[in-house]
Amino acid sequence: MVPEEMLFSKERFALHKTSHYFVFATLGLLLALHWWAFFYSIQVATVAVGLLTFSTFPVFTVFLETLFSREKIKWTDIVAALLTFCGVAWIVPTFDLNDATTIGAMFGTLSGLTFAVLQLLNRKYVRIYSGKLITCYQTGVAALVLLPVALPTATNFTMPDILILIVLGVLCTATAHSLFISGLHSVKVRTASIIAGLEPVYGIVFAMIFLLEIPSWKEICGGMMILSAAVYVSINPKS
Asked: In the structure, how many helices (H) and strands (E) does the chain have?
């Protein structure tokens, strides 16, 4: 069945090429991996750790863009990458796989890497399809992939839980993801990274207010390193 949003916008739901169905399915799998890694990072560690390590994605974006365009890597890119991972290392108290913060940082960084790959590929296809259509396919595939993981806990949901999940799914995920992809049609991924880089800031503030999670000084210092490198590579097109 064609989604109502597609009906209202009178947009053709079918893709132009058969190969694009495989591409969009792959992007949906990548989105599912990104979501799982990000939320698992927050679950085992803290909101601050998950958000700050996810913020490595602009640095990954720069290196991947350089790889795709076959340009030479600039020394400033290397410095930014080193600063980023020094920030991650500063957040992690010890590289012990039994430590929750270490595991959270690893999965948070994985979520940053997958997000960078996803947005670079999205920018290619947003020139052909609308952000709404791309989001519809990606989130649809991601939902199917993650459904077996979510079903065992679905019986424990209360009505307030369901209402919150609807708000998170429709407004904070589908709508936000669609707007972000649509924005890639006219701006570079690096430019969009500047806006996305604000997420750790207000995310940590909300975690302090609603979850009473106060970031440690190590997390703040490490986060400043990561965010500084992310902002630099995002605003410096000649980096």
From this structure: 12, 0
Query: Whole domain around residue 175: which residue ranges?
Result: 15-235
Number of structural domains the chain divides into = 1
Residue (of 181, 204, 188) closest to 54 by Cα position: 204
Token duo for residue 22 = 């495989």
In this predicted model, what pLDDT tens digit does every residue of 44-98 receive, in sequence order? 988 888 888 887 887 787 778 777 766 677 777 677 777 777 777 777 767 777 8
Does any domain span residue 10? no
Give the tens place of pLDDT for each residue, 122-171.
Answer: 878 888 887 788 888 888 899 899 888 877 777 777 888 888 888 887 77
- How far apart are alpha carbons 24 and 230 in whole angstroms? 28
The DSSP call for residue 168 is I
